[in-house]
Amino acid sequence: MNMKRGLGLLLAVSLAFAVQAQQPMEGIAEFQKKNMPAAVLELPYPPDVVEKAMEEKFKTMGFKPAKAKDYQLYRNVPLGDGGNLYDVYVKVDRKSRKEKAASLVQMIMAKPNEMLSSRAADERTGIEDGKTYLAGVTPFVADYNLNLEILAQESLIDKMEKKHTSMLDEGADLAKRKVQIEEKIAENSNAVKQHALDLEKARQALQAIRARKLAH
Question: What DSSP element (H or E) covers 149?
């Protein structure tokens, strides 16, 4: 098995495991201090990644979010086999204080233009369609997160390659400077030897002159 094929298989297995490990469920979400049924999904990715992935998924469907308190609101979204229209309220939180890298997605399904403040406490509008949607969006989020990891790793490698090239260039420059310094050392050593000879000749000449003075 070559490296690319092995990596591809590993990524596929990782995605499959992530998809199988998380199943949407019915839970309770708070909106304007009121608890109401919601489709809920736990995902093993940071909240900022999941929120951006959810936005991207809705964008591929042609929907942009509006702000609704702590939620992202997508209006008139067709979901389910019957293409029922919903106003979808989406909120992504950190799963817990200890699990900062895991997220909890809460999705409240409402009828178009429904006022949630007047909704009955046990109203379960669109819960099953919401759970089905979250089940389908799970592989998208996993792939989105994987792409971010790939981009981050590519960026890291790019920086490391640039640093490696810089280090090689610096090494080549140091080696060149080393040769130049060694040449200068050799030149200096020869010059010192020659100067020592000249100095000795000068001293001998001085002694000869002094000898002539004494003889005179």
Answer: helix 127-215
Residue of 152, 141, 151, 128 whose CA lies nearest to 60: 141
Buried b (16+ CB within 10 A) or exposed e, 25-44: eebebebeeeebbbbbbbbb
Which residue shows structure tokens 């999941």? 50
Residue 134 and residue 145: Cα distance in Å, rounded?
16
Question: Distance (Å, rounded) from C-alpha 196 to C-alpha 154?
Answer: 61
Distance (Å, whole) CA 212 – CA 193 = 29
* CA dist., res. 128 & res. 80, Å (int): 8
- CATH label, 18-156, candidates 3.40.50, 2.40.160, 3.30.310, 2.30.30: 3.30.310
pLDDT in tens, 88-139: 999 999 887 777 788 999 999 999 998 888 888 778 889 999 999 999 999 9
Q: What is the mean pLDDT of residues 77-83?
A: 86
User: Cα dist. 171→9, 94, 131, 162, 165 in Å?
Assistant: 40, 47, 59, 14, 10
> Rounded distance, CA 95 to CA 85, Å?
29
Residue among 42, 156, 145, 61 nearest 102 (CA): 42
Please tell me what DSSP assigns to residue 95.
S
Please state the domain extents for the chain.
18-156
Parallel/antiparallel/unpaired status of strands 66-68 and 71-79: antiparallel
